[in-house]
Design goal:
Elements: H1 2-8, H2 12-15, H3 34-79, H4 83-88, H5 96-113, H6 115-128, H7 134-147, E1 159-164, E2 171-182, E3 189-199, E4 203-210, H8 221-229, H9 251-254
Antiparallel strand pairs: 1-2, 2-3, 3-4
Helix pairs in contact: 3-5, 5-6
Organism: Vitis vinifera (Grape)
InterPro entries: COV1-like
Pfam family, one: DUF502
Length: 255
Amino acid sequence: MAEEKESTSVPLSQTGGNGGEDPEDPEKTPPASPNSSTRKACCYFLQSWVSKKFMTGCVVLFPVAVTFFVTWWFIQFVDGFFSPLYERLGIDIFGLGFVTSLLFVFFVGVFVSSWMGATVFWLGEWFIKRMPFVKHIYSASKQISAAISPDQNTTAFKEVAIIRHPRVGEYAFGFITSTVILQKENEDEELCSVFVPTNHLYIGDIFLVNSKEIIRPNLSIREGIEIIVSGGMTMPQTIAPLARPNDRIPLNRIM
């Protein structure tokens, strides 16, 4: 009985699990189907195309969504000044408070432009400047509003300027705020006070630059502010210096 059991016991490696065929033998494994490789290539191409079109849609819709969100928030914010008054009167019309706010701002501008309005505004400003903490906030905000004001007074930005800063071959955008005469032994030198913003518009450095070394581009004050606030994304492709009859200096001498 023991001999019969020994004769019938056969190692598993000899029989194989598959009728004697080795699954790890590359010669005996079935070749990959060409349809599967084509299917993988099509799936990869479709995935790449879908992801690319999705990112294109995000790039297109992102500025639209931001513009819509900011505009909607601004309308609701301005509308909130007068909408509670209309609600108490029983008038529920969306946008009526926004229109009323715009008309209120317009009539304030008309009133302040008159002599009586300017006097009232001066008294209010005098009172605000006597307040300990509020006067600093008011002064900073007034400088920013004066920079974009249509009335070109002494506190507004005069011109957009390009100066050589911080080293040779590099230039910085700035705004000419005033001019000063530097008295020397031989001759006087005219210097321009150029404000170069380092944090949008309310923080920056002041440089006194010779008026002949300043490049005055063909850009308005609003265009210069848009370039700085946008981080240079609204920069025009070509910038040409303004031709002035008093100081026509070749650009290669300045640069």
